[in-house]
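Action item from last week, closing it out:
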Amino acid sequence: MAVAAAVAVAVCAAPALGADTWTEAGSDRADPLTESQGLTSVEVPADSPNRYTGIGTIPGDVSSRGWNHVGDPDASYDGHYIEPYQRDDGGAKMFRVQAPDGSWSEYTHELVSGEALNNSFVTISPDGQWMVSGEWGTTTRLLVFPTPGINPATSPSADLPYGFAINLDHAVRDVQGCDFSGPATLLCSSDDPEGSLFGITKPLLQVDLSAAPSGSDVTGHVTALRQLPLQSSCSGNFEAEGIDFDRRTGTLRVIVLSPGVCVVSDSKTWRFTKG
């Protein structure tokens, strides 16, 4: 199935920012090797630690096969954990899945017409059946696949098929991660360095879907909620990374890497509470 190309996206006039309802509640240092790409809270089994990805978390046997970039992961409500991978030669994406019993499997998706090679993040729908994934650059869509390892339409021995799209009503740029905060609501971190789309750089975005994912295209209304915190001892270009919403505590977390040499010392995982 072809995916409509995401190039030559019209840049809409910047809308008004949404109410700034997410308030900073502290931060933790983010290690640039092992916590620099993404993060997720894990509900099953109980008392599991949070999980992170970075260049230092890519297994040697995975990188030796060319999968040299890992994105923002997610964990389902039944205990499956998924990491998204890409490689420089393009042509395919890979989703590495750990089942609740601890076993690992890999699901490969061959790119379809118009699909970018980037595999920036995954987030699993609350019902577990659908997995949203992101590309890069300026786009007006997010991609949706049947969730590998959960949806019965998937198998490690077969190509992971493209499912459908979330068609956005406003362009977004360089989305590094999204996470479901409800059945039809996504919270997303954008590394947008320009600020022309929403009037701010590095925005926290909310995408309200016309319906919960169920197998066919849905629309998404995009709102910029606030700028992510840009605080460091160094000046320069920050990089917004992955995002996680923990439904048990209502805590939102986003990784922001510091500029220059400060990437080692004061990159942060920011915590937010609503209200």
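Closing note: The radius of gyration is 17 Å.
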